[in-house]
Input
Amino acid sequence: GNGEPGELPAAETLRFDGLSMSGFSVDAESSDELDQFEIASIDLRGMGPEKLAAMALEGLELQVRDDEEDVAVVMSLGSLSLAGINTSFIGALQESDGDDEEAAAALMSMIAQNPGDPNYDAVILDNLTMDIGGVDFALPSMEASVSRDDQGRAVRSVTKPFEATLTANPEGTLGSQLAGPLAMMGYEQLVFKAASDAIIDPENDSVTTASADNYFELVDGFRMYGGGTVGGMGAYYQKLSDPELLERAETDPLATLDALSEMTLYDMEFSFEDKSIVDKAFTLASAMMGQDADTLRSQAQLGLGFAPLAAGEIGIDPAILTELASAASSFLADPGTLTVKLDPETPITAAVFEDPSQITKASLGFSAKSE
Output
């Protein structure tokens, strides 16, 4: 019919056992940018007051274009399955009544209840591909899950190891800009690998990660991994939910840094392992700047030698920058693994930065090495 659409029911009253749709599409002629948007099927199961038991989506196809930039985006998703989806955000968005600040505040407040919780129990993604102006991204599969305690709070969040690729098509608008530099570095395509594992402690409002289980790798390039314990996550997001803070952030993006005062760093370790990226980077820089790669490497090491001089201007312990610069210089000279570690005597809070003289190598438990 031609009647006016009614209001959606309140999220807490929305219930159903199952809802399925198939052959969903949007009329591309009604948009200047949309060429195609189709979903083969969507299946929703067990909608309750706070959770959707399961969602399965298959066959998503999307094509949009930007004629001004001469860039087309083509996306395809084979399937996406989610279980145990937290639907509280629906009510939060409804209560905001279209007010962006209120919506953001409501979402931050929801996250603060159990920080580190991705608000699902499990997700499985298959066959995601994207072509953005000739830059082709492919993610064959990805799987993540969340473990909960008897109160339903997230206590562990795991993303299993997955692999993705990025390829530059020289005939594409953006691909043509990327293909040259990649070729200079010896890449036909970029292959990425990653995984994550976080232990969440709702009682102490902290999140802990271990270096071995949290990494991002560019095959034949580098591997980054790290871990540590951060506290005050819930208090951080709760402060971000303050409407006054969000309003100030519209004109002063740094206003949200006030919320960092709620966080505490107990310890941290970060490592960058070279797998040929250093040599490749200097090879690329040499080709672009017309200078010898070894000369550029020496210049970079020389620049690092001046880094400790900045300590006096900043007001922090010169020993921190001296050790960091020395480790970085050794890493450039003989690439291996650069590791930076913080193991403070007492947990670090934002208050320490109010008096830079308190930032010493000993108080931070700072160390940096290349091996």
In short: The first strand starts at residue 16 and ends at 25. The radius of gyration is 25 Å.
